[in-house]
Every structure is written in C-alpha cells, then in structure tokens.
Amino acid sequence: YLRQIYIHQPNRLYARSLIFTETLYRMLHYDRGGAIVTKYLDLHLHPETFVRLVCGLSSYDEKEVGLDTNIQWEIEYGRKTNGTISTVNANGEKVVYDIDMENPTFLRHAIRGQGTMYWHAKGPVPDTPVLIKDSWQADGRIREKVLLGRAKGIPGVIEMLGHEDNVAKTTNFRPANFASDGFVNSTLARVILRRSGPTLEKFDSEIEAIAVVRDTIQGHCNMLTGGILHRNVTIDNIMIVRGRGTLRSVIFDLDMALLAHPSERPPRCPAGRMGSRLFMPVSVIRDYEEQGMVQLAQDYLDDLEVLFYVLTKLMLGFTGIG
C-alpha cells in the first residue's frame, strides 16, 4: 500500500503508517534509503505514544506527513488538474514552473533507490520546454550537477539550465545517530534540463530511430573525449532532437556517470550499482550473480554493448511506429 502511495503521490519524500491490534501497535517508515519498523508496543502500557502517532499521521501539514511542499497541485473532483514546481534557476533565483499535465510524469516504482522522477514543465521563458529531474543521490557518488557542468557545450549531451541541491536528506527522516549496515544517506537533487523532444521510443520513422542511435554513439564518444563515462545508457535516457543542431539526439541521466580519469574519481560508492537490468552490460550482471569474482571496471566498451541492447530493443520490442 505504501508503494501505491508513492506512485500516486509523486511529490512524496517519505511515507509512514501504523499497524495495530487489540493490544499491540508499531509504526512503519519508508523512504528512498529503505524501511524502518519499530518494535511492538503494548497499547495499554504506552497509550500516550499511540495518541501521538495517530495525531502525527493524521496531520494536515503536508511537510509533517512527508510531502515535498515545493510541488503544489490544484485538485478538482479528487484528481490533479494543474501543478507547479518551485525551484531555482542558474542564478539561484526562485522560479516557478508549470507542470505539463499533458505529458505523463516518468517515475520508478521501487521505493528504495534513486527514486528518479521526470517532470515535463513550462518555464517563464516562452517556447522553452524543460525537463525537471528529481533523483536521490547516494553519498559517495559524484553529484549530477558537477557532471552536467563538466559536459556543458559537448555536442550530444543535454543542457542544464539550473539545479537545486539538498532539497531533502534521508538522514533527516530518521532518529538521531541512526545507523544500519544497509543504509546509505541519499540527498534529493533537482536539475532543470532543456527539453528538445521526446525519448527514443517515440520515434517517427525507422530512419529516425536508427539515426538517433547512431548519433547517440557519437554523443557518447564526445562525452568520453570530454572526460565523462556515462555507464547508464537506456532507451529512456536518449532524447530525440528535431529541427536543430547537427546531431539528432542528446543523452541525459548522468546519475551513474564517472569522470573518466581514475585520479578524479571518488571512492567506491557504498550504495552499489543501480539501473535497469535490461540495459546492463554482462560484466555488471556477473558481479551481481557471481559474488566473489574480481569486479571489473566498467568502461566505454560496456556502454557500446548497452547501445547494442538499445538497438535490439528497437528491433524486437516494437511492432512499428507508436
């Protein structure tokens, strides 16, 4: 049920619920770092705590019940009709974007992990559609804004128009001095990207689909020459470019990217490798399945292997245009 709450309330930072019987009760907390379940308490021995939990979970304060108040909705007859996102532009100034309700929001259905969310939006500048990306970035990873800043001006890589760091932290939702073997703090980051067109799966013709794959390889090469290795290519993070520029695609979603020179890389991220299994190179899947193997460093050849899987998805996963 909490997973359904996340899917239907995409501006949720965390979700909490209460389970109780005639004599016992416990609270459950879920966020992008995982779950916390309290021990059972006796309802008759700890009634004050029970009342506090019920009052807290029933609050009308959106922030208190785990919602991101930077995102607001207009509701008619119980359904969202319009929405806005408040964030900052490249100069650090507050900007309000109107959510494009005609384009569905892309979100991952898993609770734990990056919780990647893409909002189609319209900014204050006319005829400049944007893509606002929310993602939870684990401590130890290079921040996406750093990689997008490094990629500025590289042909074939999406353009960043602004960013907001530290929107929320999973440590702030947990008890003081919380520690667990499987827990790594994640920080919600919001980046504003220039939207040039739909993703690859919305191709208009077979020629366009193949041309976009070809130009994505060129854009990936340009990025590598600029010192960035992407490491997370999928059919969903290749955007079609129509009517401008020399390349017919831009690549985005640099959550898993690394600076290509080993001396610039941070220590290994304790959160591990994430992403769509369908578009993972064989060497990474082997690391998951055959624990004890010497882990291989992922390189540009693995990304080229994944681009072959993107091409295979186009050929075998679609009956035609649309």
Automatic annotation (TrEMBL):
SUPFAM superfamilies: Protein kinase-like (PK-like) (SSF56112)
Superkingdom as given in the UniProt entry: Eukaryota
Record-linked Pfam families: Pkinase_fungal
Domain Fungal-type protein kinase stretches: 1-166, 184-313
InterPro entries in alphabetical order: Kinase-like_dom_sf (IPR011009), Pkinase_fungal (IPR040976)
Gene3D superfamilies according to UniProt: Transferase(Phosphotransferase) domain 1
Bilayer-spanning residue ranges: none
Designated name of the protein: Fungal-type protein kinase domain-containing protein
Protein species of origin: Ephemerocybe angulata
Taxon lineage: Eukaryota, Fungi, Dikarya, Basidiomycota, Agaricomycotina
